[in-house]
Amino acid sequence: MNKELTCVGGPVCNEKLSAGLIFAEGQNLTHQNKEALWEIFEAIGRNWSNTIYNSNNQRSSWYEMLKAKTENAPNYTGEYVNAIYVINELKAIYGIGGAYKKLFFESGIDNSAPPTNRLAHCKIYVVNEFIRMQITAGGFKSWGTKYGGEQAKNYHGFLGGTRYNRVSKVRAYDPDATNLKADQE
Amino acid sequence: MKNQFDYIIVGGGVAAATVAKGLLEHKHDTSILILEAGPEIIAKDRRFWWDYITKGERPYTFTYDQKFEADSTGNIDYQTEGVRVKAYGGSTMHWGAWSLRFRPEDFNLFTNTGEGADWPINYEELETYYNDAEAFLSVCGDDSANWVPRSKPYPVPPFEWTAADGEMIKAWEQLDVVYQDGDINPGKSSKIKSGKMPVARYRKCMTTGTCKYCPIGGRFNAQYVLDDLKNDTRFINFEVRTNAPVHQVNTSSKSKIESVTYTDNLNGKEHTITGSTVILASGAYNVPKLLRASKNEFWKDGIGNDHDLVGRFVVSHSMLNVVGKAQSNPNGWFQEYDFPTLMSHSYNTKEHQKKGKIFMFKNRTTPNVDIAQLMIDGKTREEIDEIVYGEMTINIQAFLEEKGKHGNRLEARPGKDRFGLPQTTVHFSRTEKEMKNANDRLKLLEQIIEKMGLEVISSRVDKPGGHHTTGTARMGTSPENSVTDKFMKVHDTDNLYVCSNAAFPTGSAVNPTLTLTAMAFRLVNHFINK
Ligand SMILES: Cc1cc2nc3c(=O)[nH]c(=O)nc-3n(C[C@H](O)[C@H](O)[C@H](O)COP(=O)(O)OP(=O)(O)OC[C@H]3O[C@@H](n4cnc5c(N)ncnc54)[C@H](O)[C@@H]3O)c2cc1C
Ligand code: SF4
């Protein structure tokens, strides 16, 4: 069970819920809902400075994921709407910047335990999945340059599109003149 | 519902897909029924892919054997739990797609070492079928690497070595092959040679690293072939029935196979289907179980089991695994692919066969940092930077060749699994000498890790298991030494064939599926010429 820290958030965040996906079959996200969720996605990019370009470039991928997760069973709409409630409460208590800092770095949520309140649902079903999605879709690219090395080219799942095929997918080994090919029997 | 076919194929994996495709392309109206015990699980589904990316869930894992469905006895635990996919497409739903040829000496293990068995055919007889198999699986490989004799180039160029492979390549350059006790020609030394891992790619890769559920159908999956066959309007008499476990092969005399009986798992009804030829392509676990379950007045102990050999001589590969650690990773190396790109056959040669060959490769996932998980755990950008360039581990691994033993046997145990197939027990032991040899080989891998300037932090022999199980209905020259003949026909029958790793008399040190596919092409040719 999740050992929730009741000190984060207010009554909404700490309201008890069962661990399973919030039931939402037949429900849809509104345009407003999607804009509110996009704010979470952008906040991830901002807080980790992990996109070398604006998160907007990832918007179509992100939107496609949202569609896949809300138009097929099990439906995530209930989780997404819950996350919006949670964020609204956190913003009311900590202000915009403070809300995301709390949620990303100080939530106290055990990410490997079943989520049993609204805050934990928001962290595990929405924030954590958005983080994975963002890194996969290109958020890894800012790593790999610290020591002047070649920039990271890939991360598991990165789908580069057709243009991408012209660029090498990975950092390839560049053998010197004594290329081993010639040695093979 | 049609209940009579030219060919009935039990199982819906790569063996079944290859045979069906070969027969249909030869004669379009051939009637073929594939009966697959498991369900159909969609590949290339966007929701499934996103669930894999965001939650690590894969849609087919529920078909794996569970602990309560399989066990093992003997001095080594044999792993069946969590290994095989039982579904339309079989284990190619999640295989690694490494596609390597066996080497000539693998066909003559007994002649060369006095242990294990010989194949009733040799490498040369299979060579052209290897070309067919490589074209069919679309293997990306390096033509300049002549590890085994080949008469045709690879159909697709190889994947390049990753930057992270470089240090191991350099270490190999510095290390000689160390001939140990039990190897032929001790004292001889030569360089360890590096190679590019050949892998099967049905379509050009567009991404990396999620090959266990590929978003675009890049990695070969037998499901794509079966879909193509079903959708091809020329093949009007081809049919696949899923959720259809076969539990009996029926005969009308000792030699004549007449029909098979299966249960429709969706409604519990039993059906008996007659076929002119029956092919068991149900994998190395279920071929022997089905043969032994098919008892009748002509075959008191099950079909092909008059000499009590069915299910015996089971072999697999144990994985040798050595992990090295460096204090830092200043280049931010990362094994971007989900498969190894670097391999060596230097210990996979005839000289090392007596002691037990190994096939070495750099592990498919190291070095690696799960950046997303660190973010999920609340680490800051600065903390993650430290970790990305901090401690790094690299594994070297090797498959260890095993030799078939009469006492090692795979068989059914009472009870059915969730798909109506018999549960499994594997009796498997290794001799003291084999254990010692495995540990000697481990020492070689440790030397490589040390040459790379890494500290060895773990060195172990992992357990054998269902991944590469072979030998359970092996080919041979007579019913006294084998279950099937050189065309994989069950001895003393006219029309019952096995198309499976089960028929392999030896398992070599490399993955089996390219050889299985070559054998399937050879079987098709046999049918066509009959
Ligand atoms: C994790 C993993 C990774 C692997 N990676 C590689 C690799 O990189 N390279 C390589 O060469 N090999 C690899 N292999 C091995 C490879 O998957 C097998 O060699 C190959 O899939 C065997 O194909 P098959 O058609 O004989 O059997 P399977 O793929 O096992 O298909 C047999 C099918 O028959 C069905 N069946 C069984 N009994 C019955 C019955 N009585 N009635 C009806 N249906 C039945 C099963 O449900 C199954 O779907 C890997 C295996 C695993 C588990
Ligand atoms: S590397 Fe990417 S495209 Fe290629 S098989 Fe793996 S997941 Fe598919």
How many discrete structural domains of chain B?
2
Oligomer: heterodimer
Low-confidence stretches of chain A: 1-5, 177-185
Average residue pLDDT of chain A: 83
Would you tell me which CATH topology of the largest domain in chain B applies?
Answer: FAD/NAD(P)-binding domain
Order of helices and strands of chain A: HHHHH
Report the helical percentage of chain A. Answer: 40-55%
The small-molecule ligands in this entry are: flavin-adenine dinucleotide, iron/sulfur cluster
CATH domain class name of the largest domain in chain B: Alpha Beta
Figure out the total of helices of chain B: 11
Number of helices of chain A: 5
Alpha-carbon distance between the two ends of chain A:
58 Å
Most extensive interface between two protein chains, with residue counts: A-B, 60 and 53 residues
Amount of beta strand of chain B = 15-25%
Main traits of this protein?
heterodimer; A: 185 residues; mainly alpha; disordered N terminus; disordered C terminus; B: 530 residues; alpha/beta; FAD/NAD(P)-binding domain; 2 domains; seven-stranded mixed sheet; six-stranded antiparallel sheet; 18 strands; globular; binds flavin-adenine dinucleotide; binds iron/sulfur cluster
What can you see in these coordinates?
The complex is a heterodimer of chains A (185) and B (530). Chain A is mainly α and 185 residues long. Chain A has helices spanning 11-14, 31-48, 59-70, 77-105, 118-136. Chain A has a domain at 31-138. The N and C termini of chain A lie far apart (58 Å). The relative contact order of chain A is 0.17. Mean pLDDT of chain A is 83; it is low at 1-5 and 177-185. With 530 residues, chain B is of the alpha/beta class. Chain B has two domains: 1-72 and 84-157 and 219-316 and 406-428 and 467-530, 3-Layer(bba) Sandwich (FAD/NAD(P)-binding domain), CATH 3.50.50.60; 160-196 and 318-401 and 430-463, no CATH class. In chain B, the strands form four sheets. In chain B, strands 1, 2, 7, 8, 9, 10 and 18 form a seven-stranded mixed beta sheet that branches. In chain B, strands 5-12-13-14-11-17 form a six-stranded antiparallel beta sheet, covered by helices on one side. A three-stranded mixed beta sheet of chain B has the order 3-16-15, covered by helices on one side. In chain B, helix 1 (14-26) runs parallel beside helix 6 (222-231), helix 1 (14-26) runs parallel beside helix 11 (513-529) and helix 4 (123-137) packs across helix 11. The complex binds flavin-adenine dinucleotide and iron/sulfur cluster (SF4).
